Amino acid sequence: MTEYAEVIVDLSSEQVDRLFTYRVPEGMRLTPGQRVEVPFRTKSLEGFVIDIRDKTELDEKVIRPVLRVLEDYPAVLPELIELAQWMKKRYHCNLVDGLRQMIPAQMRGGRVREKTVDMAALLVKGEALEAAMAANARAPKRQEVLRLLAEGPKPVPFLNSVAPGAAKKLAEMGLIGITESGVRRTPYAALEGGLAPDPELMPAQKAAVERIGAALENGGGRFLLHGVTGSGKTEVYIRVIRQALASGRGAIILVPEISLTPQMVDWFRRRFGGDAAVLHSRLSAGERFDEWRRIRSGEAKVVIGARSAVFAPLERIGVVIVDEEHESSYISDKRPRYDAREVARWRADRHGAALILGSATPSIATYMRAMPGVKPVNRLELIEMNERVKGRALPEVQVVDMRDELVRGNKSIFSAALMSAMQETLDAGRQAILFINRRGYSTFVSCRACGYVERCNQCDVSMTYHQADGMLHCHYCGDMRLPPKLCPQCGSRFIKYFGTGTQKVEEEVRSLFPQAKTLRMDVDTTGAKDAHETILSAFRRGEAQVLVGTQMIAKGLDFPNVTLVGVVAADLSLHVPDYRSVERTFQLITQVAGRAGRAEYPGKVILQTYDPEHYGIELAAKQDYRAFYFKEVTMRRRGLYPPFTVLARLLVSSKSEETARAAALDLEARFNELLDSRPDWRRDVVQMRALEAPLKTLRGEARWQVFIKMYARPSADEVISQMEALERLEFEGARVELEVNPNAML
Ligand code: ADP
Ligand code: ZN
Ligand code: ZN
């Protein structure tokens, strides 16, 4: 009987976002989820088998056969095919955009495959082996190879390093056999000292593990684990995962950006050994593929990774964990624009698993779901851990008003308080972290006489001076050029470098504390493959006393010897034109403050600010999350911001500003027509209009937008579907892109 395969071709386009039918040739066996090569128009394409049928309505004669099977196993599990279907609806993408997330990118196009090595093994034993030894009496190298092989099979390259050519010779003599065998590329060196034991849990940890564990055994549950910095959330995750493993199920744990959390990976490897697989962007294609295969084959049951690890091919899941759930990196900024927290929830629901969102500073939207009065479908159970482990104190926070410093004649970027605290810390042989929410030496270059600012020719932003190469850089398009000696506008020689960056802070530390060694961690120093790990482990080993860095150092790092954290300019991120700027500032300060005093020695935090009365700064200094939440929710409700509303836009870009504008106005008009036809939608729209995007030009293209703000009601979803249709309209010379609640609307 002939079988037919329903295939999604690996081509992301609206036009081919449907199933194509192919005949399964005689002798070929296929199951859904397998990848195949199929003829398509005049070419051949890779594709995903979605379904197998034994009949078709199509004309037999026009159906072409599957050309080839790409892997002998289904690369995409049935559950993950369904997930891709859900993503298509939820994130307005093509089915193939979802399916592509389910496999390592390099598998497509056959750019990665299993690595093999020649293994040698003895073909003789006992007396025959002794005879062989004797026969090679005058070839001691060959004898050595035989002796090594008597212990067990060995890779040929290893044998060749001992005795070049000996293995080949012995194979020719029929004494050993050589076979090809698959090997795994492991991204991390072997563990030294074996697995670490489980510590005894603190009472709050124990209570958390018990509650989540009960849910795991009883069909699942969704939790928000709100624990202050240093409360030991990781240990809770580990114990819940153990429980999942004990019942034969696996676990996924997502971390914001894995290169920033090497410690987390280290902990997991020390506790779970080979059961743990690590997926992250800095792995080589081969390493990534091999880790993925270990998961797919069921060998590794604990998966730790960044956003995309949520698609790990585990067949049975007991718990899905999203650590630092407030991080914006969980929302993909590329197609498909998915939110990993939502996907995590989908998978947990599907497996009857527990879902844990963990953070010391949950996002406002998440925390709201753990408050009373939320509909059961959205509800999160709140678990709080309000104290640090072993009764360690939260760091003492001192707010310094920088305006007073200026009055007192201190023009340095360090307040008197921060300077003396630095001195004390260094004298005591401890370490300090200086945090600055920016990179580069100065933010921008401007003329003191006329106010002229150097801007990028391609993008509507000011250029940034980098001291390392003495050039001006555009942080959007990467363009660079030499800074001007004279003002291009008025000819003045007084060109000033404004702002404070990590480099400047580092220099200032060097001149004030020449005896201290410093390390700097920002985008400029972390370009190389293992740069993060190198800098962090040097700091951990005490090779430097001061670490200067950007938000990169705010994440879950645990340095026992750090007793001082200086936030050089706490309000820098407060004035970003985004409704989340206060929330982000609060999170950053709390997180970075949380790096101090995590071991026996108490910690101190100095917060330098020009805006000490701002509620974001004040409540971060008090480390009072709940008070901040209630204040911020009031502000959002009053200002009609998410989560009370949904923000979206159709972004139009074009080489010509006139074309972009015309397209945006056209879209606005169509939108208005649509709303006129649906008064119920119109009622829920707070605001809708066409206007220039805040970033007017990017990479030489003009940008306009149709911006919309709607109440967060069911109608919002319907309106967004309509916007999708508008997104698909073709405008000569212009591109239209839909963004819903994006991380930033520039
Ligand atoms: P969080 O993620 O909540 O900020 P961590 O999970 O990083 O906190 O834990 C803080 C520190 O406390 C870590 O050094 C961790 O090893 C340690 N720790 C956690 N739980 C225990 C425990 N039960 N006993 C001893 N030390 C613990
Ligand atoms: Zn000038
Ligand atoms: Zn640019």
The fourth-level CATH homologous superfamily of the largest domain is P-loop containing nucleotide triphosphate hydrolases
Q: What low-confidence regions span 5 or more consecutive residues with pLDDT below 50?
A: none
Main sheet overview: 7 strands, parallel
CA distance, first residue to last residue: 57 Å
Structural class computed from helices and strand pairing: alpha/beta
**CATH class categorisation of the largest domain:** Alpha Beta
Radius of gyration: 30 Å
CATH topology (fold) name of the largest domain: Rossmann fold
Helix content: 25-40%
Q: What number of domains? A: 5
The strands making up the biggest β-sheet line up spatially as 11-12-10-13-14-9-15
The shape is globular
Beta percentage is: 15-25%
Judging by the overall fold, what is the CATH architecture of the largest domain? 3-Layer(aba) Sandwich
Secondary structure tally: strands: 30
| Number of helical segments with 4 or more residues | 22
Rounded average pLDDT: 88
Bound molecules: adenosine-5'-diphosphate, zinc ion
Structural key phrases:
binds zinc ion; binds adenosine-5'-diphosphate; 746 residues; seven-stranded parallel sheet; GIY-YIG endonuclease; Rossmann fold; globular; alpha/beta; 30 strands; 24% strand
What does this protein look like?
- The two termini are 57 Å apart.
- The model has no long low-confidence stretch (mean pLDDT 88).
- By secondary structure, the protein is of the alpha/beta class.
- 32% of the residues lie in helices and 24% in strands.
- It folds into five domains: 3-110, PriA, 3(prime) DNA-binding domain (GIY-YIG endonuclease), CATH 3.40.1440; 115-183; 189-390, 3-Layer(aba) Sandwich (Rossmann fold); 392-443 and 499-638, Rossmann fold; 645-740, Ribosomal protein S10 (Alpha-Beta Plaits, 2-Layer Sandwich).
- The chain is globular and about 95 Å long.
- Helix 7 (203-217) packs parallel to helix 8 (233-246) and helix 18 (615-622) packs antiparallel against helix 19.
- The protein binds adenosine-5'-diphosphate (ADP) and zinc ion (2 copies).
- The site of one zinc ion has 8 residues, from loops.
- Residues 456, 458-459, 474, 476-477, 479 line the site of one zinc ion.
